[in-house]
What does this fold into?
Amino acid sequence: MTGGLVVEGLGVALAGRTVLSGISFAVAPGEVLAVEGASGAGKTTLLRACAGLVPHAGLVRAAARPAMVFQHHALARRLSATDNVMVGALARIGFARAVLRLWPAPERALAAGCLERVGLGAVGRRRADTLSGGQRQRVAIARALMQQAPVLLADEPVASLDPENAEAVLLLLRDLARRSGLAVLVSLHQPELARRHADRRLRLDAGRMVPA
Ligand SMILES: Nc1ncnc2c1ncn2[C@@H]1O[C@H](COP(=O)(O)OP(=O)(O)OP(=O)(O)O)[C@@H](O)[C@H]1O
It folds into this structure.
């Protein structure tokens, strides 16, 4: 499989306790797979393991390191939307140039394009802390797109949004999967949102996969 995500026999232990075990699934390019489960079921840990942020047993295979959208967007409040998106290019640009804000012109153009793709072409200069919750989550998605990864992991991206913005962000993720061939793995508390916006669903219960 090229471009997608394959997980086989994934297991995670944290502080000596098994948090995930026997997790196997695949997400194809262009597909949205939702991870459902109650609080504490292991959704965040699964996404973090897929992102390489948590040591794990088993196999996680993707053509390149997945990009991650964090639950509380984790933007730098005082930076502009564009500069927040540029952070997604850190691995290419290097920390020293980033600190000096020596962003190469092609990367600036790419950041502008990523903001356009999430419907925020007009707010690039605005500071993150002047944006609405929905706009901030979109900037966080644009920052993940900036990584140009084939796989996008979104951890409860709508948890702090009102129903209208939640709907819009999930439609955006689906659209990005379709148009850009991204494999999207999104964790969601609300099963009805997962049913409406995901192509397939996976349910976790106490760290194990159960029928969705
Ligand atoms: N760093 C850690 N050390 C020890 N246990 C942890 C750690 N992080 C998470 N856990 C435990 O792992 C389990 C799964 O947590 P996780 O955050 O993945 O669940 P979740 O489904 O994302 O929950 P929520 O919906 O509340 O975010 C929980 O029992 C949690 O207490």
Observations:
- The chain has a mean pLDDT of 92.
